[in-house]
Design goal:
It is a single chain. Helices cover about 65% and strands about 5% of the residues. The protein is mainly α. It has a two-stranded antiparallel ribbon with strand order 1-2. The radius of gyration is 21 Å and the shape is elongated.
Length: about 180
Amino acid sequence: MMKKVLVSGLAGAVIFVAWAFVLNGILGFNARLGMKQVPDEAQVHEMLKTKIIEPGQYICNPALTSDSRFPENEPVFGIRYSGVGHEAAGFGMILGLIQFLVMPLIGAWMLSKTSELFRARFINRVLFLVMIGLLVAIAGDLGSFGIGGSPLTVALIFAVRTIAAWTIVGLAIAAIMRPELK
């Protein structure tokens, strides 16, 4: 069974990498939806550089009204600063590849711990991994929505992307993780 876990997990990792390459590298999905260009970027960057010097997540609220309340229908900005610049892109890609390797291996291992009766049906094996994708989407993608976060439409689109990726990975893992014939 361990060999099936490793082979199916590696197949899932290859699919995650291919999925990310097509979606982001070729189609520019993340860049178009998740990262927008700031008007007057050079001036905004210089101002932020002087105001935000510690890594962290920041909220920029509008000024309070005379009765000490936040004004209605005014934007709230979220700012994230990790403490690194573009020089860390390579390291970030390596971490992403490690995630793409580890996640399907964990999913395949978890599936291997279910009963043989459960694993006997292909649809059960696929849906098991789709449910992992659903949990990841709810905790990660939908969790990014809110004040200073992602717009709801972007969070929902990213959640669908995550569930779709886990569905494709689930199909591959389920095809390899067939129960032993007795």
